[in-house]
């Protein structure tokens, strides 16, 4: 392990002040499940970190009649234990269950998964489907932004210097959504996804009234498939409708060849997952 500096602030204000005092010098460290791996492998040049792991201002799950707000330090294990998350946001609970080992689920955080900005991350597709908002905080104040559009490019997100993610807000709804989540990897557990698919749809009398689809590992960023959604919204799930949506999805994504899979495989798997999702909507 290369040498590094770690400071442990007494509270959130102290952490933000430290980061603001030397812009770009100090970066936040939460669970460390991604960062410490990169550091040990020699793939992380940065060496000065502010530990935010023990900051109570970034923890907790708050439930109101309109929203569920998750502190950025909410772990995957906490998501799995929360009854309302499991009942109303099952895609997020499913993503948490398929993220790494139990040790990773106990230590890894939802905010860290977002900030790490990997296009292969498990929870971002679910957050896109649920129209999540993010609270970003710095020494200068706080602001809320939509998660959709937060990605600027490969591992690039809309955080300004000195900002960290404080919370993730999910709108609650009485709409009877049908949910679908699939993570395709080399193994059933502890594998980085080759393709990750999250979908939700509101169907009435066989017709899709609303639909949301998001995918990971098929583009430089986690992708909300808006054109594919538009092709399915208002339609019944006929074979012709599904084939057309598959063609649109194939054009909407931009997978690559890498050590885990090929562009051709990812594109075809994404189309197959879409068909499986749509088949469930026709029942």
Q: What order do the helices and strands come in, and which of them pair?
A:
Blueprint (H helix, E strand, L loop, with lengths): L4 E3 L4 H10 L5 E3 L5 H6 L7 E4 L9 E3 L3 E5 L4 H6 L1 H6 L1 H8 L4 H6 L2 H7 L7 H6 L3 E6 L2 E6 L4 E3 L2 E2 L6 E8 L6 E7 L10 E10 L2 E10 L6 E2 L1 H7 L6 H14 L10 H19 L2
Parallel strand pairs: 1-3, 2-3
Antiparallel strand pairs: 4-5, 5-10, 6-7, 6-10, 8-9, 11-12, 12-13, 13-14
Helix pairs in contact: 9-10, 10-11
Explain what this protein looks like in three dimensions.
The structure is a single chain. A hairpin with a 2-residue loop joins β6 and β7 (141-146). The N and C termini lie far apart (54 Å). The mean pLDDT is 94. It contains 11 helices and 14 strands. It is of the alpha+beta class and 283 residues long. α9 (226-232) runs antiparallel to α10 (239-252) and α10 packs antiparallel against α11 (263-281).
């Amino acid at each position: 392990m290369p040498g590094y500096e770690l400071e442990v602030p007494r509270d959130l204000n102290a952490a933000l002040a430290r980061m603001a005092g030397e812009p770009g010098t100090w970066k936040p460290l939460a669970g460390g499940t991604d960062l410490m791996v990169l550091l040990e492998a020699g793939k992380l040049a940065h060496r000065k970190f502010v530990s935010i792991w023990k900051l109570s201002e970034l923890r907790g799950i708050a439930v109101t009649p309109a929203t569920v707000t998750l502190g950025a330090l909410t772990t995957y294990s906490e998501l799995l234990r929360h009854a309302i998350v499991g009942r109303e946001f099952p895609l997020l609970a499913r993503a948490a269950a398929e993220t790494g080992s139990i040790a990773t689920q106990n230590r890894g955080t939802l905010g860290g998964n977002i900030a790490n900005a990997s296009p292969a991350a498990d929870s971002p597709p679910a957050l896109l489907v649920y129209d999540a908002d993010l609270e970003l905080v710095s020494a200068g104040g706080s602001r809320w932004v939509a998660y959709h559009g937060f990605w600027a490019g490969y591992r690039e997100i809309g955080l300004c210097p000195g900002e960290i993610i404080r919370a993730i807000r999910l709108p609650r709804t009485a709409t009877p959504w049908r949910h679908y989540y699939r993570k395709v990897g080399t193994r059933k557990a502890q594998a980085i996804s080759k393709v990750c698919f999250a979908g939700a749809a509101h169907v009435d009398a066989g017709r899709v009234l609303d639909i949301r689809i998001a995918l990971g590992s098929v583009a430089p960023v986690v992708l909300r498939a808006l054109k594919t959604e538009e092709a399915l919204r208002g339609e019944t799930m006929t074979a012709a409708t599904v084939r057309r949506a598959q063609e649109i999805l194939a054009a909407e994504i931009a997978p690559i060849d890498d050590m885990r899979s090929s562009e051709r495989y990812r594109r075809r798997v994404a189309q197959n997952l879409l068909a499986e999702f749509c088949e469930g909507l026709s029942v």
